[in-house]
Amino acid sequence: MMENPGLNLSPSVSDEVRKTTCYMCACRCGIDVHIKNGKVAYIEGNRDHPVNKGVLCAKGAAGIMQVNAPSRLRNPLKRVGPRGSGEFEEISWDEALEIATDWLAPIRAEAPEKLAFFTGRDQSQSFTSLWAQNFGTPNYAAHGGFCSVNMAAAGIYTMGGAFWEFGQPDWDHTKLFMLFGVAEDHDSNPIKIGLGKIKARGARVIGVNPIRTGYNAVADDWVGITPGTDGLFILSLIHELMKAGKIDLDYLARYTNAPVLLNGDESSPEHGLFLRNEDGKPLVIDRRTGKPAPFDGKGVRPDLSATYRKAGISHRTVMQLMAERYLDPEYAPEAAAKRCGITADKIRTIAAEIARVAFDEAFELDHEWTDFRGETHKTMTGRPVSFHAMRGVSAHSNGFQTCRALHVLQIILGTVEVPGGFRFKPPYPKPVSIHPTPHCKVTPGKPLDGPHLGFVRGPENLALREDGTPARIDKAFTWENPMSAHGLMHMVISNAHAGDPYKIDTLFMYMANMSWNSSMNTGGVMDMLTDTDENGDYVIPRIIYSDAYSSEMVAYADLILPDATYLERHDCISLLDRPICEADGAADAIRWPVIEPDRNVRGFQSVLCELGARLNLPGFTNSDGTQKYADYADYITNHERKPGIGPLAGWRMGENGLTHGRGGPNEAQLDAYIKNGGFFSTHIPDGAQYYKPWNMAYQDWAVTLGLYDTPQPYLFEIYSEPMRKFQLAAEGHGDRQPPDHLRARIKQMMDPLPFWYPALEEEAVDKGDYPIHALTQRPMAMYHSWGSQNAWLRQIHGHNPLYVPTKLWEANGFADGDWARVSSVHGAITVPVAHMAALNENTVWTWNAIGKRKGAWALSEDAPEATKGFLLNHLIHELLPPKGDGLRWSNSDPITGQAAWFDLRVKIEKTTVPTETQPALPPIKSPVGKGPDTLAWKVGT
Q1: How far apart are CA 361 and CA 505, in angstroms?
Q2: CA–CA separation, 542 vs 103, rounded Å?
Q3: Which strand (E) or helix (H) includes residue 43?
Q4: Least buried of 199, 580, 650, 879, by fewest C-beta within 10 Å?
C-alpha cells in the first residue's frame, strides 16, 4: 500500500470573499473576490448578481492579473525630459496637486475654455462632467464620440433609448434574434446567457456582420454584408415589409408619430414641422371624429392615412411620407443587393422570415394595462422578433441614419417594448424633451451655464459663440455635426494643434490612450503632442494625464496622476450615468477597495474632489472654503443632483426610514451596498414591464423611483422634427443660419426620415486605387487597450494577424507565414496575414488594440504585441482627404461627429517578410521599467 504523501487535497481558497463589480468590460458583472492574507487569490462570478448570475468570462477571471500587472503606475510623476521621451521624476501628491492647481487656477480665472478636459472609458461621466461644469470650461466629453454616439443618439432621438447597455431583447419570448455589427466585447455575458436561452428554445439567430466570429459564428444564418451598407440593407427590408403589408398599423397609429400631421405649406417657415394645437401638442386626425386632435387626447384614435386641408393647403401624415420613400424602387432588393454584397433573394428571404415570426407567431400575454390616453387593454400583444446592434453599424459616417433605420424597422414591426421584442432598461425610455440641451456660455471664474452635453432640439441649441464660430475645441454641436451628443474626442488634439477654432492651454485627460489605439492618425497625433512653435514652446502647452497603467500616452504628458485599479478604489455605476439595469428592474452598483493599494496611487475621482477644492470650485467647496467631499466615497454618499436624487438609488433616507429611489443621503449607504453584494436592484411591478413609454403603471413607478419628476409618455419619433429644423435653416429660414459651404450637406444629411448614403471616405478616395474595406473588431477576451497587457489574456491573443478572405488570399498568392503591405490614402503598414473564409470577400480585418508600442505597458521590447502586433489606426486619419477647398473636413458622421473608424479603404500586396511589423517606432522609456519574464506569486500558505 502506497504511503500518503501528505497532499492537501482541499486547500482553503480564501480567508474571506468580498463582493464588488467587475471592470474588465462594459458588462459590469458582479464578482466574488476571494481574499487570502489581504491579497486577491481568486475571482469568480457572483451568483446573486442581476447582470451575470454567476457567469464570468476570461476577462473577468483575469482581473487578478490586472490588479497585479507590472505596468501599474506607482507614484505621481513630473516630466523632466522632452515630451515623448518618457523621462520623469517621482513627486509627492502634494506637489502634483500644487502643480495642477498652479496651471489650472489662472485659466479658470481668465479663460476657462483654455482647459480641455476629456475622459476615456471611466463610467463616472456624471461626476467628471459636474467637475468640468463647475470649472467653467465648455470643453468636456467622454469617449462616446469615437465609440458609440451614433447608436446612442439615434436611439434616443428615435425611440427614447438605445441598444448597448440601455436595452435588451426579451430573451424569454423572442423567437427570431438579429444582430447587426455586434462584436463580442460589449455586454458579452448577458448576451451569451440570452443566446443560450433562445437557442435552447429553438429560436433562430441571424448575424449581419462582414466578419463571422463569436456570436455570428453561432448564428443560424450569417449575412456577410459589405461594410457601410447596413442601412441600405435595412431599408430594403423595410421596403419589402411595407410592400407586403407586413407592418403593425395599430402600433404605428397608437405609439409613434406616423399619424402626426406635417405642415404642407411650402412657403411657410414651418414647412415639414408638426401641426400643433395652442398647447404645442402635435396633432393627429381622430378616426372617431375626422377632426384634428392632440396626439395624447383621451380616447383619441389616430388615423395614419388622413389628410387635413386648411386655407387651401393639404397637410399629410408622416406615414404617407414613409410610404412614398420606402416603397420607392431605389430600396428594392434588386437595387440594394450589389452594393450590400447580398443577393436580392436573400434580402427577400430574410424579410419574409421576419414577417412570418412577427405576425404569424404573434401571441398574447394576459396582462391588463392602461395607456396614456386612458384606454385599458386586457392583454399585451407579443411580436417575437428582436434586434441588437453595436459599433459595426455605428462607426461609419452614415451610421446615425443607419441606426435610425434599424429603429424604424423595429417600430414598423411593432417589436419595441412588447413581449418578444426589444425592451428598455431603466432609466430608459426617456423622451428627448426631458434630456438637457448642450451649454457653452463661458464666464471667467464662474461655472458653465449648464451641462456640456445633451440633445439639441434645433439650431437654437448649437454651441456657437456670438460671432458664429464653434464654442468647443472639438466643434461639437456646430453646423459641422449638429447632434454630437457625446462630443468629438478624436478631434480635440488635432483642433488644439491647429488652433481651430482656438488655442488651448491645458489638455487634461483620463484613461484616454490618445497617443496610440484611441487615436486616428496615431503617428500624426504623436507629432502634434510633441510639436513646438517658433519660440520652441509646445503647441499644446500643458498635458495632465491620469491612468492606472504605463500606457503609450504616459510618455506624452507633463504631469501624471496615477489612478488605482478597480479593486482598490470606489466607483459608482449610477442611474445618472451607465447603470446595470435589466428590462424587468432597476439596478445600480458600486466598486469599493476590496484591497489596499501597495503603491502611492489614488482613485482619480477622489483626486478631482481635492483638486476641485483647491481650485475653489462651486459644488466641491463648502461655504467656509473647506473641501466639500473628502473623497469619491463621500461624494457618492452625500452628493444630491437635485433634492432626494443622488448617485445611488438604494438605501436612501426617507421620512419614515430607509427607502429606495428618492430620499436623503444615508451615511451607511455604501455599507448597505457592500453587505448586499455591491449592488441594489428593485423589480418593476407586474403589468408595468412592457409598453413602458405609454404604460401609466410604469410611468408612475418611474416617478416614484426618481427616474422622472412627472409621467413622461411620448411617441416614437420615426420622423425627427429637430432634424427638419436644421433643414429649414439650410433653406434660409430662422435667425441662425449655416455657413454657405455647409447648406447643401445639412439639407441632405439632416433628413428627418432615415435614408442611406455612401460613406464619406468611400466617396473621397479612388476606389480603383483602394478597392478593399478594412475593419478592426475587439476580441471577446480583450476590452480596450489594457486587456492585452494582461498576463493571462496575452496567452489568448499575443499578437494579431490581418485576416484576408479567400478571394483576396488567392488573388495575391498568399500562403501561411506571409506578410502584406497594406496602404490607404493616409499611410501604410506591413503586417502578417492569415486566411479566413468566413469573411466578406472584399474585406480584411484584424483585432483591435493588440499591438503595443515598444517600452509601454512594462512589456519587453521584443514582446509579440510590439513585433507582430499592429494597429490599423496608422491608416486612418481624423480628417478626410482634402477637397481642394482649404477646409478641414472631419472623418466623422456629419450629423453626430461619430468617428468613422470603419470607413477605411485600403489596397493590399504581398511583400517580403520583415523582422517586425511596420511602422516600427522607437521604444519609449517607461517610468515603471519592464516586468519580469514570468509573473507568478503565491497568496497565503
Answers
A1: 61
A2: 8
A3: strand 39-45
A4: 199
Amino acid at residue number 370: T
The helix/strand/coil state of 60 is: helix
Query: Under a CB-based contact definition with an 8 Å cutoff, are residues 567 and 532 in contact?
Result: no
Distance (Å) of CA 352 to CA 203, 246, 382, 385: 16, 9, 18, 12
Report how far residue 817's alpha carbon sits from residue 822's, in angstroms, rounded to the nearest whole number.
16
C-alpha grid cell, residue 383: 411580436
Q: Which of 506, 679, 425, 547 is nearest to 99 (CA)?
A: 506
DSSP state of 481: B
pLDDT of residue 64: 94
What does the pLDDT look like over 343-402, one tens digit per residue?
A: 999 999 999 999 999 999 999 999 999 999 999 999 999 999 999 999 899 999 999 999
Strand duo 307-310 + 313-316: pairing: antiparallel
Q: Which residues contact 795 (CB under 8 A, 6 or more apart)?
A: none
* Residue 39 in grid coordinates: 491579497
Band (pLDDT 50/70/90 cuts) for residue 143 is confident
DSSP type of residue 794: G
Contacts 24+ apart (CB under 8 A), 463-472: 463/138, 463/438, 463/439, 464/440, 464/736, 465/440, 468/739, 469/501, 470/501, 471/113, 471/138, 471/440, 471/442, 472/138, 472/139, 472/440
3-state SS of 145-185? HHCCHHHHHHHHHHCCCCCHHHEEECCCCCCEEEEECCCCC
Q: Are 624 and 618 in contact (CB under 8 A)?
A: no
Pairing of strands 88-90, 657-659: unpaired
Burial of 345 (0-12, 13-18, 19+ CB in 10 A): exposed
Q: Is 148:391 a contact under the CB 8 Å cutoff?
A: yes
Per-residue DSSP letters for 84-116? Answer: TS--EEE--HHHHHHHHHHHHHHHHHH-GGGEE
Show the cell assigned to 610. Answer: 481635492
- Cα(682)–Cα(696) distance, integer angstroms: 18
Give residue 7's pLDDT band: very low, low, confident or very high (50, 70, 90): confident
Q: Which three cell numbers stand for residue 801?
A: 494577424
Please, is 909 exposed, middle or buried when counting C-beta atoms within 10 Å of its C-beta (0-12, 13-18, 19+)? exposed
Confidence class for position 469, pLDDT limits 50, 70, 90: very high
**3-state class percentages of the chain: helix first, strand second, coil last, to nearest 5:** 30, 20, 50
Amino acid at residue number 285: I
Question: Max CA-CA distance within the chain?
Answer: 107
Integer angstrom CA distances of residue 18 from 287, 304, 669, 806: 60, 57, 17, 50
Cβ atoms of residues 113 and 122 within 8 Å: no
- Cβ atoms < 10 Å from Cβ of 864: 18
185's grid cell: 466585447
Q: Are 147 and 602 in contact (CB under 8 A)?
A: no
The grid coordinates listed for 807 are 478571394
SS3 letters for 856-876? Answer: HHHCCCCCHHHHCCCCHHHHC
In total, the chain counts a number of residues equal to: 941
**The cell 453587505 sits on which residue?**
675
Q: Give which of 382, 140, 155 is closest to 248, Cα–Cα.
A: 382
- Written as nine digits, the cell of 270 is 414651418
One-letter amino acid for residue 133 of the chain:
Q
Distances in Å between the Cα of 60 and the Cα atoms of 31, 52, 64, 193, 938 are 8, 11, 8, 15, 20
Q: Which of 523, 573, 581, 574 is nearest to 552 (CA)?
A: 523
Could you tell me if 539 and 497 are in contact, meaning their C-beta atoms sit under 8 angstroms apart? Answer: yes
Amino acid identity for residue 441 in this structure: K
pTM over 0.85: yes
Identity of the amino acid at 236: S
DSSP, residue by residue, 489-519: GGGHHHHHHHTSS---SEEEEES--TTTTT-
In terms of Cα–Cα distance, which of 150, 227, 154 is closest to 898? 150
